[in-house]
Amino acid sequence: MDTIGTISFNELELSSNVIKDLDFHGMETMMPIQQESIPLLLEGSDLIAQAKTGTGKTLAFAVPIVEKVNLEDRFVQALIITPTRELAIQVSGEIKKIGVQKKLKVACVYGGKSIDVQSKSIRGGAQVVVGTPGRMLDMMKRRILDIGRIRMLVLDEADRMLDMGFIDDIMRIIDATPNDRQTMLFSATIDDRVRHFAQKITRDAKHISTGCDELTVEGIEQCYYEIDRQDKLDFFEKVVRMETPESAIIFCNTKRWSETLIKLLKRRGLDAQALHGGMSQAQREKVMDGFRQKKFRYLIATDVAARGLDIDDVSHVFNYDIPQEPSNYVHRIGRTGRAGKKGKAISFIEANEVRSLWDIEHKCQTKIPQARLGVLQYH
User: Fold this and answer.
1) 3-class secondary structure for 185-201?
2) 213 falls in which pLDDT band (50, 70, 90)?
């Protein structure tokens, strides 16, 4: 496989409009997933790709879609299904970035926002629609969204969509699309369940993998501190101030404790906001936008609330609470060290939680060093 940065987008046979938008946003060289996917997709192949968030997978399907959409056809030509609202917003934003010169019309549809507003963007001639399964089905039933002529279908984070129980909704959507469509499936993991699903919806698909499965934690410096419960908050504050992160996500295991922790941190002068499942979509987006724009440095979240988060430039992840499942640990720390950048993940473990640490190390096939203030040592 080619290494990162060895092939330029200019080496592909892309239109000048797409190249101009890529250049404008500083997207000059391709990442491995893009190098392997884009030529195949430009040729029209179906694709099953294993790549996790942060590897550049969005551009891997966005570039071929923008290139292949016919502007003279004012109907939906590409449909991208995502598991969460946040991912839908992020993906549609990336497509819009590289479709400016081409004047591509992109609609983003998801629950929690007015269906009337989203309907206008579709009826205004959207050629690409990105969204969540539930809202798509709703719009199909209301005859707002017609996908009977689409040419390209993308399922992004397919494993997560299956985990969230969306398979029936997704199949209803797919059944309404043409049989001769081009299908692209991207998934962090390709287990038997995902493989069987992919085989049902693709034809003679090409298979690629970036070598980044769910339990890949390369490029992320990891360590943990073992602490007593009564000293945890004081010790946590000391470590955070010592690390001076540019931006950080702090994970807690429960919504209740995340709400408590934010109050405690604010009292100590740390600029933090919380993200939890009880928030409205408008509240979530306000917090997310503030974090992206660096209006505050610390985002406190639970595993459930963090689903679909896609934020670059997170320098640190702090596990205030160690997760119970090793896979959650990997999903958490994968929020840092994105797209080839370095990141740091620090966990705080009480004596009775050491077994959870061992489970994580076994699953990730790595040894996480124990840290003491000013010292790192392997246990």
Assistant:
1) EEECCCCHHHHHHHHHH
2) very low
Q: Which of 49-58, 114-123, 146-155, 364-373 shows the highest mean pLDDT? A: 146-155
Domain 220-377 belongs to what architecture?
3-Layer(aba) Sandwich (3.40)
The CATH number of 9-209, from 3.40.47.10, 3.90.920.20, 3.40.50.300, 3.30.450.20, is: 3.40.50.300
Which residues sit opposite 346 in a β-bridge? Answer: 223, 318
C-alpha 265/C-alpha 276 separation (Å) is 16
Q: Which residue, chain included where needed, has tokens 């992320």?
A: 220
| Exposure class string for 139-174: b at 16+ Cβ within 10 A, else e | bbeeebbebeebbbbbbbbbbbbbeeebeebbeebb
What's the whole-model pTM score? 0.65
Q: Given a cut of 50, is residue 120 above it in pLDDT?
A: yes
DSSP 8-state secondary structure symbol assigned to residue 132: -
Q: Give 305 or 120, the one with higher predicted confidence.
A: 120
